[in-house]
Design a protein that fits this description.
Length: 129
């Protein structure tokens, strides 16, 4: 059974940083690309970043490209999202997800929800201005 467990969310002031983690189990982590998404109240789920099964390349949404960095540690079955210079509009529930294809390099529709097959429960990030 595939399980994704996010952690690292919390409350932070604008301009601060958080590092989210996603621990995966029940799958061969190193052969799947992974992604981060977020969903704010009343809004659609938004794709933030995708990382190839090997760690490179990565793809990031323009809205977070300079401030957020996706990375992974295949030895520890863990995905990360480093978030810097947080803004109030970054407040949302953040989710990690597994892409459906093996050995994916995030080259086709990297931030499209339908390309992802397993999802975590999410971790809340709240940024106060």
């Amino acid at each position: 059974q595939v399980r994704l467990m996010e952690s690292g969310g919390g409350s932070v002031q604008a301009g601060g940083s958080l590092r989210l983690s996603c621990r995966a189990s029940g799958l061969t982590f190193s052969i799947y690309a992974m992604g981060w998404f977020r969903q704010a109240p009343g809004k659609e789920r938004e794709g933030l970043a995708c990382i190839s099964y090997s760690g490179s390349p990565t793809v990031q949404a323009a809205s977070v490209m300079v401030r957020f960095t996706i990375s992974r540690d295949n030895a520890k079955h863990t995905l990360h999202l480093q978030m810097n210079r947080l803004k109030a509009e970054d407040t949302a529930m953040y989710y990690c997800a597994v892409r459906g294809s093996l050995y994916d390099r995030c080259s086709v529709s990297p931030l499209t929800i339908e390309k992802y097959t397993y999802w975590g429960q999410g971790t809340q990030v709240t940024v106060s201005s």
